[in-house]
Amino acid sequence: MTRLTAGSPRTERADYLTVEEPLEIRVFGRPLAVTMRTPGHDVELAAGFLVSEGVIHHREHFSAAIHCSADGEENTYNVLDVALAPGVAPPDPSLERNFTTTSSCGLCGKASIDAVHTQTHFAVADDPLTIDAEALIRFPDELRAQQRVFDRTGGLHAAGLFDGPTGELLVLREDVGRHNAVDKVVGWALQNGRLPARSCVLMVSGRASFELTQKALMAGIPMLAAVSAPSSLAVDLAGDAGLTLIGFLRGDSMVVYSRPDRILESAATAPASARSSRTEKAAQS
């Protein structure tokens, strides 16, 4: 690469780039979708994709997966054939994507707009999760600290699943597509028997779109937090489903768009007037 800086001579050196390659997901040999992804954790990606599409929702539903060649050509590890467990219905033909899903769009190619509103097997409105705001504001830094590939390329999205009560980062996945990163996390949860992901928080490095909100709901995740803005449709969906949606989670602040009752304010994050009132009450008691 050649770097140009105003007032300085140009420099040339090797550089690291994020890999972006197509992955064709097949079920019982039948093509279902093609997504542009960063290779790695492909089985999790396929599993999470099938959860997001409402095809499966339990780890016993996912039987096996194998990379295979495309039409007799050399195996490039860009085709993954999934076998579902006996008795699990194959994907409905209406779910088949009409064209390749780009790394920036997880809904491209849907046969109809009605197919976007996938029905989840898990309800989140009654999830008992509560989390201290002071603990929540540490999640973006923990996510960023674990983004090893991003450190070299600067070109990857990240998604992490946190255990709400303990704050433990359960899994982190990176991908050139933010929807793929989330699917890899959901696929990990499926394979490890963590669905529904009760009392967990899905943390994403970008914005909170409708598709990511839907993926959280399909996995039974009651809280989605993003460092950037949500879309209007994401807020509507979260409000209807009872999911806590958080945007602009940066530094020591956040914006909560739905179900703010799950966010607890500690003495450190409460307004000064509230802290003063609590101190006075404590002194009186």
Characterise the protein shown here.
With 285 residues, this protein is α/β, with parallel strands linked by helices. The chain has two domains: 21-108, Ubiquitin-like (UB roll) (Roll), CATH 3.10.20; 131-264, Cytidine Deaminase, domain 2 (3-Layer(aba) Sandwich), CATH 3.40.140.10. Helices cover 26% and strands 25% of the residues. The protein is built from eight helices and 14 strands. It has a six-stranded mixed beta sheet, with helices on both faces. β8 and β9 (169-175) form a beta hairpin. The longest helix has 14 residues, at 178-191. 38% of the residues are buried.
Q: Mind telling me the CATH class of the largest domain?
A: Alpha Beta
CATH architecture of the largest domain: 3-Layer(aba) Sandwich
Largest sheet: 6 strands, mixed
CATH H-tier superfamily of the largest domain: Cytidine Deaminase, domain 2
Short note summarizing the structure:
The chain has 285 residues and is an alpha/beta fold. It contains 8 helices and 14 strands.
